[in-house]
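Pasting as-is:
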Amino acid sequence: MKFFIIKKQHIMLALCVIITTALIVTGSVSIFANQNRKLPIYCVKTDKKQVAISFDAAWGNDDTQTLIDILKEYDVPATFFVVGAWVDKYPESVKALHDAGHRIENHSNTHPHMPQLSTEQMKNELESCNNKIKAITGRCPTLLRVPYGDYDNAVLETTEALGMYTIQWDVDSLDWKDHATADSICKRVTSKVKNGSIVLFHNDAEHTPEALPNILKCLKDDGYEFVFIEDLIYKENYEIIHDGTQCKIENN
């Protein structure tokens, strides 16, 4: 009978090989997963000095008319993402936004964490909200902003299957935070906007009506053109790179 003596250094070498192999495999899986992860549109790569202003409307409604008046004064079109339940409570505001020339888009029907839903439930959230908006405006939304900014591949695929685009933002005003002031909101937005930016505000944040005029004036003075998100994004021949920037694919 033969006996094999396994030295300590042999054991350590074997462990190193096992650990290294595991790390390589894990890393490969991680890289593969990231390559297959879908992204919504956070902003658009463009040479045009354009920016899109957007508001989420899910809860209150005290300032909506004030926002309409400010946007009218500065001749700025905006995109409002509204929750279906908000439409139920404030149909007159939905009509007022539409009549003022703004775009009304989908922010889900009940403001859930979408990745926690089944495909059928997600589809129902989108279609229910779409139907409510269309009943008032005559126009069916083409864009979705997911509640809480919470998405996964299934959410994006369900949205795409309905012929819609999922939209995030690259400039967050943080107007909803307790420590936010009109000045801090203004400085934050104007310092971060670039060509193709999508800016996030909320229709019921305390200091947004105070901050908005200065923001619009500063951006206009800086030469920015305000456009609807729907007109900013590419509808075909595009890719979305790692940071959520939508880029046009040029045909050779």
